[in-house]
Design a protein that fits this description.
By secondary structure, this protein is an alpha/beta fold. It contains 18 helices and 16 strands. The protein folds into three domains: 64 residues, Winged helix-like DNA-binding domain superfamily/Winged helix DNA-binding domain (Arc Repressor Mutant, subunit A), CATH 1.10.10; 134 residues, Aspartate Aminotransferase, domain 1 (Alpha-Beta Complex), CATH 3.90.1150; 234 residues, Aspartate Aminotransferase, domain 2 (3-Layer(aba) Sandwich), CATH 3.40.640.
């Protein structure tokens, strides 16, 4: 039973880890079973005892086994998501230096109010595209009545309509006891980090990813590790290597119209990701804030494919703008209850008013028609983008736009530097270079929804000019 495959070209300790995991998954080892002693394992594998100790320590960190003095090494009987005491080291947090502002962003933010600047950086729809709805006329007394309806998990009418929409549009059927209302998707992420992770834990994310720019990970003391992507999504082979090398505890993905690339993970890749997460018993957090803005049929959400392994995050901010700060977490009931308790302990209370506004928006009789009109308008903007993009095809490449807010333009030529991107600010073109999302400098995120046809034409005229500048002698 305890033998190595000499044909495998991976470190011995990783082979031992994989074998133990396989035995647990196939039922040869059951929860509570005791593994042989380190000495016996070392003799069976014909390796140094230190190699066995290394493998077992890695398996402990991943949660597969536990080591108890006097009892030996046992297969873990627990599951992720059960421990839920919020953790925040305030002394450590307050002693940290304030992060240095990214110079590019500092200059960009200074240009946002310049009427001559073209803002393709902001991650929202322009105001004239946000679907309209009529707010109900509530007296203060009526709002107090609605406030009394609120439960620990949120405003029940809003929870109910979210469940109905998920069942109708994503074939994802959940109960209201599996839905926690939050003040936006970032608060949802912060709660998950505090409840599910310890300071120093590692999280796997896509590379590139907007998550690099969020301060909540640094606040929680969590380490982010990027996993490269291909045209189908996060690379599973690279993710598995990272899981073994960095003791990853959580996987966070944005599989539909990913920010910043705009790409959508294929169904096959979603299934492979779920299979890998099950192999290592790692939860997946699915950030699904863009799926409302789809031009064509989407693959099933990760949550629809695997109910218990996936935690689903949603938000209204991409459709209604950041002024409606409403998001939600969908997970198994026990984890939702723990998150709700943590939310109360951290005093992350949420007024009933924005929840009533969100409920009103989602149940407005014109919402469906307004949303279809929005999609039609976004398709027109996409087609306009395609039309003028032909003028820079020799210098920039991009994938077809199937929905969402973003298009990822990649430079075809020599390596760019951060200094090259300063030319965009000089031309008052406000875009998001790839170094904001990874260590790469060769691409940029553009919010194509924020351009009229005239602005689109002006954008590509300036982009052609800038291509000549950053391309140097190639364009002479």
């Amino acid at each position: 039973m305890w033998e190595l495959d000499e044909t495998k070209n991976i470190p011995v300790y990783q082979q031992i880890m994989e074998q133990v995991i396989e035995y647990i998954q196939t039922g040869q080892l059951n929860p509570g079973d005791r593994l042989p002693s380190e000495r016996k394992l070392a003799a069976s594998y014909q390796v140094n005892r230190s190699t066995v100790v290394h493998a077992l320590e890695e398996l402990v960190s991943l949660g597969w086994i536990i080591r108890q003095q006097g009892s030996g090494t046992l297969v873990n009987e627990g599951r992720w998501g059960r421990s839920a005491t919020p953790r925040m080291n305030w002394r450590q947090l307050l002693s940290r230096e304030t992060p240095r502002t990214e110079p590019y962003l500092a200059e960009l933010h200074g240009l946002l109010k310049d009427p001559e600047a073209l803002d393709l950086y902001t991650g929202e729809l322009p105001l004239d595209l946000i679907p309209d709805f009529r707010l109900p006329s509530y007296t203060w007394e009526e709002l107090l009545v609605e406030e009394k309806k609120q439960k620990a998990l949120g405003y029940p009418p809003l929870q109910k309509v979210i469940c109905e929409r998920l069942a109708r549009e994503q074939e994802l059927r959940v109960g209201t006891n599996e839905v926690l209302i939050t003040s936006g998707a970032q608060q949802a992420l912060f709660l998950l980090l505090q409840v599910m992770l310890e300071a120093g834990d590692s999280v796997a994310i896509e590379d590139p990813s907007f998550l690099y720019s969020l301060p909540i990970f640094d606040t929680a003391g969590v380490r982010l590790y990027g996993v490269p992507m291909d045209e189908e999504g996060m690379r599973i082979d690279a993710l598995e290597q990272l899981i073994l090398a960095k003791k990853v505890k959580l996987i966070i993905v944005n599989p539909t119209f990913q920010n910043p690339t705009g790409n959508t993970m294929t169904l096959i890749r979603r299934e492979e990701l779920i299979a890998l997460s099950q192999k290592y018993q790692l939860p997946i957090v699915e950030d699904d804030v863009f799926s409302e803005l789809n031009f064509e049929q989407l693959p099933p959400s990760l949550k629809a494919l695997e109910r218990h392994q996936v935690i689903h995050l949603g938000s209204l901010s991409k459709v209604f703008g950041s002024s409606i700060k409403i998001g939600w977490i969908i997970a198994d009931q026990n984890l939702i209850q723990r998150l709700a308790e943590a939310k109360q302990m951290m005093d992350f209370s949420l007024s009933v008013f924005p929840q009533v506004v969100a409920y009103t928006a989602l149940t407005d009789q014109n919402f469906s028609a307004n949303r279809q009109q929005l999609i039609a308008t976004l398709k027109q903007k996409r087609d306009c983008f395609y039309k003028y993009a032909e003028t820079v095809r020799d210098d920039w490449e991009f994938e077809p736009i199937a929905g969402g807010l973003y298009v990822w333009l990649r430079w075809r030529h020599q390596k760019l530097t951060r200094k090259d991107w300063s030319h965009f600010l000089q031309e008052k073109l406000l875009v998001a270079p790839s170094f904001l999302f990874s260590n790469d400098t060769m691409a940029m995120r553009v919010n194509y929804t924020r351009m009229t046809e005239e602005e689109c034409r002006a954008f590509f005229a300036k982009l052609k000019k800038l291509s000549g500048i950053i391309g140097g002698s190639k364009h002479e």
